[in-house]
Amino acid sequence: MKQLKTSIEISAPPDKIWSILMDFDRYPEWNPFIISIIGKPKIRERLRVTLQPPDSKPMVFKPQVTLFKKEKQFGWLGSLFMRGIFDGHHIFEIEELTDNKCIFIQREDFSGLLVPLLWKSLDTKTRAGFMAMNNKIKDLAEK
To answer: Cross-referenced PANTHER family, in alphabetical order (predicted)?
Structure first.
């Protein structure tokens, strides 16, 4: 298993960051990495997610929501073809530091047969996508 993890400090309360993260309808307007999410953020629900890492073509997958703790955590598990080939457990976390300061964490745990073959691209392009999204959330939340 490999993990990709990024974080950014945001001068905003958790509820403001959470409202941006959960407003899937607005993703096409601001999100440079996850350009679309269709579905409801409820445990066991399937989403339709379109990702576009920098310098890459868009990818569509249908992960299942695995984690939902209001204003704290949201996550899903996606697989390529079938479980065990290439699986990604994507998690967003908001850690409150003070009343008006948080750490926004975006991480993904990858497992499966194809991870060693894809790791270089994940560690560069996907990491850059995480950081671009983190920076945009920070900009929006701090306005």
So the answer is: CHROMOSOME 9, WHOLE GENOME SHOTGUN SEQUENCE, SRPBCC DOMAIN-CONTAINING PROTEIN
Helix axes 14-22, 127-141, angle to 10 degrees: 120
CB 104 within 8 A of CB 138: yes
- What single letter denotes the amino acid at residue 5? K
How many structural domains comprise the chain? Answer: 1
Residue 110 tokens, joined: 């990858």
The CATH number assigned to the domain holding 118 equals 3.30.530.20
Paired with 109 in beta bridges are 3, 89
Q: What is the pLDDT of residues 67-104, one digit of tens each?
A: 999 999 999 998 877 677 788 899 999 999 988 999 99
- Please state the φ and ψ torsions of residue 36, each to the nearest 5 degrees: -165, 140
Q: Which residues, including other chains, have CB under 8 Å from residue 20's CB and lie 6 or more apart?
A: 26, 137, 140, 141
pTM of the predicted protein model = 0.91
Looking at residues 116-142, what average pLDDT do you find?
A: 89
For residue 132, the enclosing domain spans 2-141
